[in-house]
Design brief:
The complex is a heterodimer of chains A (320) and B (712).
Chain A: H1 4-26, H2 33-36, H3 53-56, H4 86-90, H5 94-98, H6 118-126, H7 141-144, H8 149-152, H9 168-173, H10 177-182, H11 198-201, H12 218-223, H13 238-242
Chain B: H1 11-24, H2 36-41, E1 45-54, E2 71-84, E3 89-96, E4 104-111, E5 115-127, E6 131-134, E7 145-146, E8 154-156, E9 159-173, E10 177-192, E11 195-199, E12 218-222, E13 225-241, E14 245-258, E15 262-263, E16 266-267, E17 283-284, E18 289-303, E19 306-319, E20 339-355, E21 358-371, E22 401-413, E23 418-431, E24 443-455, E25 461-474, E26 500-514, E27 517-530, E28 539-557, E29 560-578, E30 589-607, E31 613-627, E32 630-631, E33 644-660, E34 663-676, E35 691-693, E36 697-711
Parallel strand pairs in B: 7-16
Antiparallel strand pairs in B: 1-2, 1-36, 2-3, 3-4, 4-5, 5-9, 6-8, 6-35, 9-10, 10-13, 11-12, 13-14, 14-18, 15-17, 18-19, 19-20, 20-21, 21-22, 22-23, 23-24, 24-25, 25-26, 26-27, 27-28, 28-29, 29-30, 30-31, 30-32, 31-33, 33-34, 34-36
The chains are: A mainly alpha (320), B mainly beta (712).
């Protein structure tokens, strides 16, 4: 049974969205100049972009390469003087237009059978989309591995899969196939639910951080959601300060808490076998405390660091 | 909107009634029929509303959605986009899962190329997949009460929830400038699994001076950690985008505020005297902290094929949360840690093509994380022996890291669309710190060599084969000693510091034998060989990882296509440690071969049998197995760690029927199955009697019917 608070939590955002939807829906829309144009068809009329008449004369929605949906996108917002024309991206289509069977392609194409180099294809996008979040594209792993912008992005649609939180991982999994396995493991981030997606942590266009992290380091990226782990603490656990990924695999694991391996095995990859630290894994007896439940963290609860200044029961053992 | 307060028995009828009602409403004509061009080229808005029934209680399927309890749930999604063509002004409203607990709302209003702002809201629940059966009271507070003896409890569900609100704004300015501003506030509330514990009992071995021996049984108490904290992230930047030069400079700030500074449990077991669990209180919770960064990044095109990029940043992170009053602190340590970490980042890269067939790429990155937290004498009692008979120095332990990475890559074009790539990467890390109970070295270096052959432009087959070799080495390990200077163990080279040799091969191929068929093969394998401390063979020894994937897409027709995939992942770690002194006085070296094997298959089919009907099916099955393979000779009968096997499968079906152009009905069905023999909490009972359980075989059916209404 939902409590009143929960009902309010559900109802308020929903109501807000509905009201906004209604307001937007009833706002009057001025008639565009395109709609006022008469059916004067000589020379070919521009339908969406400036000078697109000679393209859209053939490429309507019934052609093999329909293009009109670009009008639904920001590329189709002609009031913005920066928006491209067909030839901005595809180059001059003169030979293509004149070719009787269209065997000659436009100067630049982006499909699977394109003969243009990846660098050339990407230059069409980078001519405008340079700087900002794409500042570090040159030299990035994707740029160096011949990833075209159109490998991930679909331009002639208002539903670019890679920009949709529900479908973005599918696009990334086209190449990063091992991740497809990891996100379904028992311990995982809510990637399937679209609450954490690849681009929340990685900037696929390159960054100044390792592994294309959106922040300058792996830890700084993790802190955007897990800031309580930053410290610094009175007692720091050195690997925590150095790199979260020493112990965790954020893409999904079979060990609790996204740990790379279960306790005690993970801890024993660093810790000296002083006394109980070296115990083998067991589900029975006194040493089961190192394997079952939270494992070593049954006692060493503050494994990310302890800010307890009291001097009892807490010297380098993270128990308080 | 339906909620699960509805009568469950009446619900299916409610769905039918709702659907009939909506579909019977006359369609609003937007005029799209009269203008096909507008229909094809103007933004379209969609509202999706309906209801569903979850037929089974579960813990895993609804872990992050709230779809956990059998009953009805509301389906409500909106995707509204409106553009004023004459001004380029956009209104966009995206609402996702508005009827569920993991809802998102994003509102955008912008005048393209001029200005824009975005307001968004996100709610993310996380339910602990294990049910807690406990007599601990005060869950979610900072002063829970723990029974002092084993006490039967009642089921409790721990969960946390994040709710964030964000705002961002951008304004284009004259001179190719753009101003950006962003702010996000995230509240996190709830409780999660936590606890305290220690080993107890009478000493069984000589030399421990009354302290519990390593093999003594322990006292462990369940203490739920209360979560009530706020994360704030904010910043502003001024960007310049010119033809050749781009710059972005600004500020990035973060703040963490924890409303629960201290956990002060009452009660708890006193068995064990000064070593009893109840002595471990209060417990410090995560302290408030913040960071402030100034940065400048940029790129410059020296020539059409030569471009440089850089970023410089200075960050100051502080942690000055006051120690709670009443704590017994040593003299002179002050009211707070005085934590401060200054980080300098400098990164630069250059790509160039000195020859028509040759391009090069270099990158250099320097990061200096300087922990300037003052070192103080926190623990005057550190010189007394601890449970293990060790003594310590009583000081806090700030750690500083300096990392330098540099990369060089050359790419040469060969005939027949082949390219040869060679690269050398170097990573150097300096760390401060001391060697106490774990080994330490001040410096590690790692060199990577990479060779790759690639064919990226071809009608039928493209692919890459690459080989990477890396060597990690470093300065000598320090000798581990206790504070008194006594020798400690020096047997384990920590995983991030150990010498390591790694070989990796990778093969990726895309093959399009015919226009309608596309096949992708991916294989990679890596082998690690770790170095140990001199005179020891403990710690990590070897590791390996293998990934195989096969994907195929077949387009039967414009109306029918299918995709199938298979993936297998195997990782293996060979490591060793040494048992504590047993009754026969022998410290036994034992090893484990940790295997993790994952196998997944999936298939997706989408079909459009008629102009009005669209259907799809998506199936996925995954099997994960962990094998622990311990080699223990002294007490093999008690040192068996069973394999853990988990299967997850999911079937999703949908059918959408367009009643009219702007009105459709969609039926979705999800079958989700989670099965495991995980023993993490099996057989574990806290000293206070708390146990954690889960249903090891969770089958969930979720069906929902919704209406889609669209307009322009």
């Amino acid at each position: 049974m939902l409590t009143i608070i929960k009902i309010r939590q559900i109802a308020v955002p929903g109501l807000l969205a509905f009201i906004l939807a209604f307001i937007i829906a009833v706002l009057p829309q001025p008639v565009s100049s395109a709609e006022l144009d008469d059916d004067d068809d000589d020379p070919p009329q521009d339908l969406i972009l400036r000078g697109d008449g000679k393209c859209t004369a053939c490429h309507d929605e019934n052609s093999d390469n329909p293009i009109l949906a670009i009008g639904k996108t920001k590329h189709g917002t002609t009031a913005d003087h920066r928006t491209p024309t067909c030839t901005s991206c595809h180059g001059d289509g003169g030979s293509h237009e004149d070719s009787p069977d269209k065997a000659l392609m436009p100067q630049r194409t982006f499909g699977k059978k394109s003969v243009n180099s990846i660098e050339d294809r990407n230059s069409a996008c980078l001519a405008c989309h340079q700087g900002g979040k794409r500042m570090h594209w040159p030299g990035s792993t994707h740029a160096n591995r011949d990833v075209a912008c159109t490998s991930c992005h679909t331009i002639h649609t208002d539903q670019d899969k890679v920009r949709n939180r529900n479908t973005q991982p599918e696009v990334c999994f086209n190449c990063h196939k091992e991740m497809r396995q990891l996100i379904n493991r028992p311990y995982r981030h809510p990637i399937r639910e679209g609450k954490v997606i690849c681009s929340d942590c990685h900037n696929p266009h390159g960054s100044a951080g390792p592994s294309k992290m959106v922040r300058d380091s792996i830890n700084d990226t993790c802190y955007t959601c897990h800031m309580e782990k930053r410290g610094p603490f009175v007692y720091n656990h050195p690997p925590v300060q150095e790199n979260c990924a020493i112990c965790h695999n954020p893409h999904g694991t079979t060990a609790p808490n996204l740990l790379r391996t279960r306790s005690p095995f993970l801890c024993q990859q660093c810790h000296e076998p002083n006394t109980h630290q070296g115990s083998s894994g067991t589900l029975t007896g006194a040493y089961a405390r190192n394997t079952l439940a939270r494992g070593c963290a049954n006692c060493h609860t503050q494994v990310h660091g302890s800010n307890m200044p009291e001097n009892i029961h807490n010297e380098s053992v993270f128990q308080r | 909107m339906f909620t699960n307060t509805l009568n469950r028995k009446k619900f299916p009828r409610a769905i039918v009634f709702f659907t009939c009602f909506v579909t019977a409403v006359p369609a609003y004509s937007s005029g799209a029929d009269a203008d096909p061009l507008k229909e094809l080229s103007k933004p379209r808005s969609v509202v999706n509303i309906g209801a569903g029934q979850l037929f089974n209680d579960n813990a895993r399927f609804g872990q992050y959605t709230g779809l956990r309890n059998e009953g009805p749930y509301g389906i409500f999604n909106v995707d509204i986009a409106k553009r004023y063509d004459d001004t380029g002004t956009w209104f966009k409203l995206l609402g996702r899962n508005l009827g569920l607990q993991n809802r998102d709302v994003r509102f955008e209003h912008s005048k393209q190329g001029k200005w824009g702002y975005v307001i968004d809201y996100s709610q993310t629940p996380r339910y602990e997949p294990f049910t807690v059966n406990t007599a601990v009271t005060g869950i979610g507070t900072t002063d829970p009460h723990i029974p002092d003896t084993r006490t039967p409890g009642n089921p409790a569900q721990l969960s946390t929830e994040r709710q964030s609100i964000g705002f961002s704004f951008n304004q284009f300015l004259p001179g190719n400038l753009e101003f950006n501003l962003h702010f996000r506030n995230e509240e996190k509330d709830g409780s999660r699994i936590f606890g305290r514990g220690n080993r107890l009992g009478e000493p069984r071995l000589s030399g421990f001076d009354g302290r519990p021996s390593p093999r003594a049984v322990g006292g462990y108490e369940f203490i739920p950690e209360p979560i009530n904290s706020t994360i704030r992230i904010f910043g502003a930047s001024l960007d310049y985008v010119g033809k050749d030069l781009q710059l972005s400079g600004g500020y990035y700030g973060t703040m963490y505020n924890n409303k629960n500074a201290l956990l002060t449990p009452t009660g708890g077991s006193t068995v064990g005297g000064i070593f009893s669990p109840s002595q471990y209180a209060p417990i410090a919770l995560a302290p408030d902290n913040e960071s402030h960064q100034g940065f400048l990044s940029g790129g410059y095109s020296f020539a059409p094929t030569t471009r440089g990029t850089f970023k410089v940043a200075y960050t100051r992170a502080t942690q000055t949360d006051s120690f709670s009053p009443g704590l017994l602190t040593a003299p002179g340590i002050g009211a707070n840690l005085g934590g401060r970490i200054d980080t300098v980042l400098a990164q630069t890269g250059l790509t160039a093509r000195p020859l028509q067939k040759l391009s090069i790429n270099t990158n250099f990155r320097f990061e200096d994380r300087d922990d300037k937290t003052p070192v103080r004498f926190y623990n005057p009692m550190a010189t007394f022996h601890d449970l293990n008979g060790n003594t310590w120095n009583g000081l806090n332990n700030p750690r500083s890291f300096r990392t330098i990475t540099s990369k060089f890559e050359a790419n040469y074009t060969l005939p027949h669309n082949f390219r040869l790539i060679g690269g050398i990467d170097y990573e150097h890390r300096d760390r401060t710190g001391t060697a106490t109970n774990t080994s330490h070295r001040f410096r590690t270096d790692e060199l990577f060599y990479r060779a790759e052959l690639r064919r990226s432009l071809s009608d039928t087959i493209t692919g890459t084969i690459s080989y990477i070799h890396s060597d990690r080495f470093g300065s000598s390990f320090l000798t581990n000693t206790t504070a008194s200077g006594a020798s400690f163990f020096n047997l384990i080279a920590p995983s991030n510091l150990a010498d390591r040799s790694r070989d990796k091969v990778r093969f990726l191929a895309n093959w399009d034998p015919i226009d309608s068929l596309s096949i992708q093969v991916s294989i990679d394998e890596s082998i690690d060989d770790y170095g140990q401390r001199p005179g020891s063979d403990l710690g990590l020894r070897k590791g390996s990882a293998r990934n195989y994937s096969l994907d195929a897409t077949y387009i039967f027709s414009e109306r029918l296509q299918a995709t199938a995939w298979f993936s297998r992942n195997e990782t293996h770690i060979d490591q060793a440690s040494r048992n504590a002194i047993t009754d026969n006085g022998i410290r036994e070296i034992w090893g484990s071969n940790l295997h993790n094997i994952g196998t997944s298959v999936g298939m997706e089919v989408t079909a459009k049998p008629t102009d009005k009907l669209e259907t799809g099916a998506n199936f996925m099955f995954a099997d994960y197995t962990d094998k622990f393979n311990q080699k223990v000779s002294l007490e093999p009968q008690v040192n068996i760690v069973p394999n853990i096997s988990t299967q997850y499968s999911s079937l999703r079906l949908f059918a959408r029927y367009d009643i009219r152009k702007n009105l459709g009905v969609r039926l979705d069905y999800i079958l989700d199955h989670f099965k495991t023999n995980e023993w993490t909490w099996t057989g574990w009972r806290y000293t206070d009697g708390t146990t954690l359980t889960q249903n090891n075989n969770q089958m969930v059916n979720f069906a929902f019917l919704s209406v889609l209404y669209s307009w322009q």
